[in-house]
Structure formats: C-alpha cells, structure tokens
C-alpha cells in the first residue's frame, strides 16, 4: 500500500506528546481503565469510577491533548511501549477500515489478555487462520441476518427465564444486578450451550476466574490447569447440547483444521457478559426518561412477543447505552508492517488506541453527547459519526452483533411488558440534566411496579 493511500486523512501531522503529557495520559486514562477491569469488571473499582466520574476526567484529558497538539494522531510512550492515540474520527475510520491488514486487532496487549482463556480466539488470530475463524464465526452467528435461524428458540428461552426474573422482581418489589445477572446467565447458557447447561454455573464461574487473571495480561502467568479444566467442562456441554443451541450449530458447521470450534465459544460468553451490562444500563435509561419509555412501550403495543421481532427502537436504546457508557473503552490495533502515515514512518508493532468514550461523549463531534438519544440510530445521524463504534467496525466488527441485540432487546421487552421500573440508585440519572460519564451497573437498583392487565 503506497503512501498516498495512508495519507488521505487531512487531520494534521503526527505529533509526539511530551513526557509530562504521556504521564498525565497514563494516570488519567490508562490506569482507571485498567482498574475497572478491561476483561472482567471489578465491582468495587467500578463504584469508585462512578463516584469520582473518572471517565469524565479521561475525556477531558484527551480534549486537552487535542487542543495542545491538534486533531492528528498523537505518539506517546506508555509503560515503555510506543502508542499512537487517535484524536480524529477520520483516523478512527481509516484504521478500523484497514483491519486486519495492516492494522491487526491481535495487538500485543490484547493477545496477552485474551490468551488466558481463549488462546485460539478470533480476536487474537492473524493471517490465514484468522480468515478461517472469522468465516466460521460469521457462519454460526449469522452475522448479516437481523434474526438468527435459532431466533424462535432464543426468544422462547429468553422470555422463559426473564419471565421468572420479572416474577421474582415483582414479588420482591425491586430488581438489582444480582437478580438480573442470574437470569441473564441462565438464559445465555441455554442459548449457547443448550438447556442442559442452564444451571451449570461452574462453567461461567471458571471463566470468570480466568478472566480476572486476564485483566493482568502478561503481568500474570496463565493458569493453564484452570484453563484446561474450564475447556473440558465447556467441551462436555458443547458435545451434549441440544439441537436448538449455538453449540449444536457449532458442531454441524464445516470448519477448516485450524479453526478450533470449541475454542471460539469462550469469546461468545465473554461478549454476552458485556451485553448484560448494556441491557441493565438501558433499563436504567428507560426508567428515567419518560418520553423514550413511552416510545419503547408503543413499539411493543399490539405485537405478538411470542414471535421473533427486530424491535428497532429497543435496539436503538441498547446502542445508546453502549454509546453513553462503552463496555469496550479501548479499541486496539497494531500495525504488522512499517507504514508511512501523516508524514511519518510508523514502525511495525506500534499500538493504535481508539478511546471510545472520547468520541462518544465529545460535544465537538456529537452535539447530543450527554443525552439519551436513541433516535440517532434510526434516522441516520449516528452513521454521520464514523467514530461511534459500539460494536467496533470494519472487518473486525463483532460478528455476534445482531444476535446480542436480539437477546438483549427481548430481555427488555419481557421486563417492560409486565412492570414499570423506577430507578432508586443512583439518583443522578435524570432526563433534565446531562447524563454522567461513568455509570456502575452493579449499583443500579429499581423499584418495580406491576402493570395492570
């Protein structure tokens, strides 16, 4: 690829940050991200991040860097590593569009973390084996279909489990994270591993333990014994899964020798964990924004919810939840060859960082940055902002996007159909004021009011 192709973005030259600015960036952006847990969230740290609104501090730090150095990519030294920080939407679009080559998603940092529990996962694969794994994942997850072929089964399982959650919440008079996540994981195990795995908490608990290690990436040695135990348990459920599960499709789908069918499933479970956070935060938004709640209920009115529905407005609410509070704050790429870009030669092995909260919550590029505005995902406005990437973008876009949105949308529909929810904690969510930069999903608690029938 020649220099002209790498220099189409007119956002300025590639500047280098001072050592002092690199240190400030590390303290205000990198360390809070690591503290919160990039692979497995740490509830106490998330509570502290919300209390001190550290995402607001991080976004302000990047805005300061943009004012000082301009909107072009910025080179920094972080923990001895060369990093290019992207500060312009055009550069984000460029880097994501040219993945996996020359900008591979399998960055050194990502490999160090994800190899703890998915050493053969798609996100940390390169070359021909990545192409094979990408095709396999897209085939099983049906990346391009709004409704998966298993949507009737997925719908029935989701409605059954969250019907129970709704009943329990109605009896208790409230809904908290523990109640929600218990129902969520029963649902996901049934969808992914089959009905026989509904109560197989040991599988997801083992994965949780390994993901906690993965937060430390290369700084903590992989517990291979624990990983092998997890993969054995996982394989047992996959091999026994009923025909209406993703595991059954995984068994039946042709795969090249290097794909490792079973090795793709840990990332599916990992992604569904983030989706739970997204859905619970979306419920908090609907509980505190009466106009949007009315629109959501209007979408559900008259629908036969026992049949698969796309529910575009609820999907838009979920996308807004991710925009406002990204579950993947750091989108990383690494160039696999030296490339000329913005007037400089970038050595191979350089990491490129897209800090998504900066682009999602920056008024300079998104006028409604701090508002709950699901309509932008329906009227085309979101498409005008190439750095709004709730599920990444380009060739590395999440292949399970539509399936995740279908499950989460069905969860919201099931809950909203039966009850009204009033957010008790935190009280700072308010339709009349800018939304907070940080929101701790573990601290959300709703009062529940039955809807008269």
Structural write-up:
There is one protein chain. Helix 9 runs antiparallel to helix 13 (265-288) and helix 13 runs parallel beside helix 17 (401-418). Strand 7 and strand 8 (344-346) form a beta hairpin. The chain contains 17 helices and eleven strands. Helix content is 50%, strand content 10%. The protein has helices at residues 3-6, 19-36, 43-52, 54-69, 89-97, 108-114, 127-141, 151-172, 177-193, 201-214, 224-240, 246-252, 265-288, 290-300, 312-324, 356-360, 401-418; strands at residues 15-16, 74-78, 81-85, 103-104, 174-176, 330-335, 339-341, 344-346, 351-355, 419-425, 445-450. It is globular, with a radius of gyration of 22 Å. Mean pLDDT is 95; it is low at 1-10. By secondary structure, it is of the alpha+beta class. 45% of the residues are buried. It has one domain: Cytochrome p450, CATH 1.10.630.10. A six-stranded mixed beta sheet has the order 1-2-3-9-6-4, sandwiched between helices.
Brief summary:
Pfam families: p450. The chain is α+β, with helices and mostly antiparallel strands.
Spatial gap, N to C terminus = 63 Å
Q: What's the total helix number?
A: 17
Level-1 CATH class name:
Mainly Alpha
Domain count, please report it.
Answer: 1
CATH architecture: Orthogonal Bundle
Q: Per the principal axes of the C-alpha atoms, what is the gross shape?
A: globular
Quote the average pLDDT. Answer: 95
What proportion of the residues is helical, as a percent range? Answer: 40-55%
For this structure, what is the CATH homologous superfamily? Cytochrome P450
Biggest beta sheet summary: 6 strands, mixed
Look at the helices and sheets and give the structural class.
alpha+beta
Task: Give, in order, the helices and strands.
Answer: HEHHHEEHEHHHEHHHHHHHEEEEHHEE
The proportion of residues in beta strands is 5-15%
Order of neighbouring strands in the sheet with most strands: 1-2-3-9-6-4
Return Rg in Å. Answer: 22 Å
| Poorly predicted runs | 1-10
CATH topology, anyone?
A: Cytochrome p450
Number of strands: 11
């Amino acid at each position: 690829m020649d220099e002209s192709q790498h220099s189409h973005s007119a956002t300025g030259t590639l500047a280098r940050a001072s050592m002092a600015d690199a240190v400030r960036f590390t303290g205000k952006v990198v360390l809070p991200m690591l503290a919160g847990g990039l692979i497995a969230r740490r509830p106490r740290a998330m509570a502290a991040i919300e209390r001190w609104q550290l995402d607001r501090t991080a976004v302000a730090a990047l805005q300061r860097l943009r004012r000082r150095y301009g909107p072009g990519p910025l080179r920094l030294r972080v923990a001895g590593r060369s990093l290019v920080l992207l500060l312009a939407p055009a550069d984000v679009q460029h880097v994501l569009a040219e993945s996996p080559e020359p900008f591979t998603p399998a960055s050194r940092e990502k490999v160090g973390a994800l190899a703890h529990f998915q050493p053969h996962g798609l996100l940390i694969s390169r070359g021909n084996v990545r192409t094979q794994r990408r095709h396999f994942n897209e085939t099983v997850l049906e990346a391009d279909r709004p409704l998966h072929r298993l949507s009737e089964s997925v719908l029935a399982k989701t409605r059954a489990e969250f019907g129970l959650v709704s009943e329990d919440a109605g009896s208790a008079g409230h809904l908290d994270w523990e109640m929600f996540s218990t129902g969520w994981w029963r649902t996901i195990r049934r969808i992914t591993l089959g009905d026989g795995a509904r109560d197989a908490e040991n599988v997801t608990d083992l994965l949780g333990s390994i993901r906690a290690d993965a937060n430390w990436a290369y700084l903590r040695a992989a517990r291979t014994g624990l990983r092998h135990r997890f993969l054995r348990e996982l394989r047992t459920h996959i091999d026994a899964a009923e025909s209406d599960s993703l595991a059954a499709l995984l068994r039946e789908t042709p795969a090249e020798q290097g794909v490792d069918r079973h090795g793709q499933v840990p990332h599916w479970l990992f992604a569904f964990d983030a989706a739970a956070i997204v859905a619970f935060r979306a419920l908090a938004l609907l509980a505190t924004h009466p106009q949007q709640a009315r629109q959501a209920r209007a979408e559900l009115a008259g629908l036969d919810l026992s049949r698969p529905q796309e529910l575009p407005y609820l999907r838009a609410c979920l996308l807004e939840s991710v925009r406002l509070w990204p579950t993947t704050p750091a989108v990383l790429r690494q160039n696999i060859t030296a490339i000329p870009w913005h007037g400089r030669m970038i050595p191979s092995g350089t990491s490129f960082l897209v800090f998504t909260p900066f682009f999602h919550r920056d008024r300079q590029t998104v006028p409604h940055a701090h508002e709950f505005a699901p309509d932008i995902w329906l009227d085309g406005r979101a498409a005008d902002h190439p750095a709004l990437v709730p599920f990444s973008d380009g060739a590395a876009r999440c292949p399970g996007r539509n399936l995740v949105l279908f499950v989460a949308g069905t969860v919201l529909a099931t809950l909203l159909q039966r009850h009204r929810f009033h957010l008790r904690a935190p009280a700072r969510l308010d339709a009349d004021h800018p939304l907070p930069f940080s929101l701790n999903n573990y601290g959300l608690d709703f009062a529940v009011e039955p809807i008269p029938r």
